[in-house]
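Hi W.,

Here's what went into the run:
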Amino acid sequence: MQISQSELQTRWQKIQQKIKAEQADGCLISTNVNLLYALGRVINGYAYLPAEGDALVFIRRPEGFSENNYFYISRLEQAVDILKEKGIAPPQKLLVESGEMTHEDWLRVQKALQAQEMRNATTLLRQVRSIKTPYEIEQVRESARLQSLAYTQIPTLYRSGMTDHEFSVEIERNARLLGNLGIFRIFGQSMEIFMGSVLAGENAAAPSPYDFALGGAGMSSVLPIGHSGKPLQQGNSVMVDVNGNYTGYISDLTRTFSIGKLPKEAYFAHDVAIEIQNRLAEMGKAGAVCEDLYLESLRIADRHGLSNCFMGLSQKAKFVGHGIGLVINELPVLANKAKDVLQENMTIAVEPKFIINGVGAVGVEDTFIVHKNGMERITSSPQEIIDLEK
Amino acid sequence: MQISQSELQTRWQKIQQKIKAEQADGCLISTNVNLLYALGRVINGYAYLPAEGDALVFIRRPEGFSENNYFYISRLEQAVDILKEKGIAPPQKLLVESGEMTHEDWLRVQKALQAQEMRNATTLLRQVRSIKTPYEIEQVRESARLQSLAYTQIPTLYRSGMTDHEFSVEIERNARLLGNLGIFRIFGQSMEIFMGSVLAGENAAAPSPYDFALGGAGMSSVLPIGHSGKPLQQGNSVMVDVNGNYTGYISDLTRTFSIGKLPKEAYFAHDVAIEIQNRLAEMGKAGAVCEDLYLESLRIADRHGLSNCFMGLSQKAKFVGHGIGLVINELPVLANKAKDVLQENMTIAVEPKFIINGVGAVGVEDTFIVHKNGMERITSSPQEIIDLEK
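Here's what came out:
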């Protein structure tokens, strides 16, 4: 990812609109994802964006930047003097990432900058990040292209008698060889996962502490999510939902495979998932309300008598889609009571999934771009259930 | 990881000693690593440990726990009523993980529990975690055993003409097939890495924003750490420092390989690294001061005329070792001004490393257990530089 100065300027202006709307003096950014957004790179330090003008970067590591808006500091207190030297008033009303930075870090910023007021910028920055620039759209498209390619190769990685863990490891390796960056950034400090989840058979219904669409017991209580180490068995569905981070911008793609033939109800539910996804793509015009898409997915599941197994069995995910970008769970969320309105150039993953008793999970997930007339699917591997034994 | 009730009781008592020393009423735990420590599992919710008695678990997800100290809640406010029902006074002086939880979460806890005072438990809990129970020691030993096995297999994964990325991917796959959990938990929200680092040639000297022993440019500015995608070349050293998380408890192991023969000064510096490690293992008796070990490593490097390339070139790591456990960077740190005293059953990674211009990184890292008479090395693959072309 090499980011031009004009791309960064565009992003700064988007953030500055929020700063002005909040009547704040500036925004101090210190968490990796927002630094990546504001600077195009991770640094150890802070990016300070005043309501007008260029970002100032107060950096501790790495050494070697000579850009004239980069200032090496050892303590944040030095930033105040640098601002004054540049003729910029130190902020009185300051936006900070209170929803992401630790309480101790928040206190440290307060002590160093002595702003009269510090307000939470976390949601504002997530809102800014939710609408992609043309450059960002290209990055998501490139991830989607490579992830789709990786997924079309999945059937070649299967060997009879594999465990779900072994299958996952080969899928991980193949993705990595195609350039997958591995790291899976997530919003929310209690969320964690390695490379994604490969859910086979009964394990698909195992409830998890995390807020992903489905769970899985995991290999250990140490990381209770995803595959559980059991052999893949005849009559299992195998749902693959693994990392699409090829460019820093994550695309999201889920496909369902089978070991041999599945019972009829599995194919039926899978087709309903595709019907839901198609319908939401059609509804998902700029201006649509997120909640309406979610409620429509419930209605379609219900119409086909599949409410009880939609998005889990007893523990259900309460959403059917979500924004994606630098993290896997960007805004907005397609969920109950989500009043957010879809806007052009949002990137959204839509993931209707069902759990079929004795079989496993079925359904699809694809990545979409919101346009005036609906959502464009940019992940492209075949949607049907592919029999790995064939 | 299946953890017995008596093991958990032992851990609770260790935390309760800190609670009492702080004259606090209890400690509320909400971050994954400390939940894993206190409950043996990750949940979405809180563990509340009063100064005396069993932990109470206020849980949102996953469903299905029937233990009588587990209480399902939707809002933390309900915890107050549950405490009262159990005859436990809601805490007035409360310890919370202020160094890990977000500022917004801190405010939420304050509002829900209305404690008179909330103090930072982050360092206290890290201190508790730094001294392992016999059960935990067994978990670290098992990770060390499997990681050592994985490392002895590394030469079989090499093929001439590989890039550092391809080599890393095969090392990752092999570790995963041996049961590596993949996830790499780190203390400090700005720290991130995927499976570790494979540093070849000049890339070993590339400075990184993160606080690891060495850096590397990474594949992209999106994740500026570790291998950079270049072909492995004749005369390169290849330093492998990848994830040892096989049990939830991470062991830490670095080995240096070569593509063909290296210049004499590389083998010399490598031998000095081993000398430093042996000397620190001998000095590292229970009661030794961490700073003294660090200063001794500087003295030995200096005595051999290698100060300028010890722990990096211009950007240097300011430590030579660190605690390990549920995260890769537990307490204590072997660093300048670190007055912490080594105690029996601490687990410590010691990683003296040098950068040789035009060659790459050399050195070793091993995992040790602190005993009365010194540190016991529990990682066991051969320490010499192995030529991958042979």
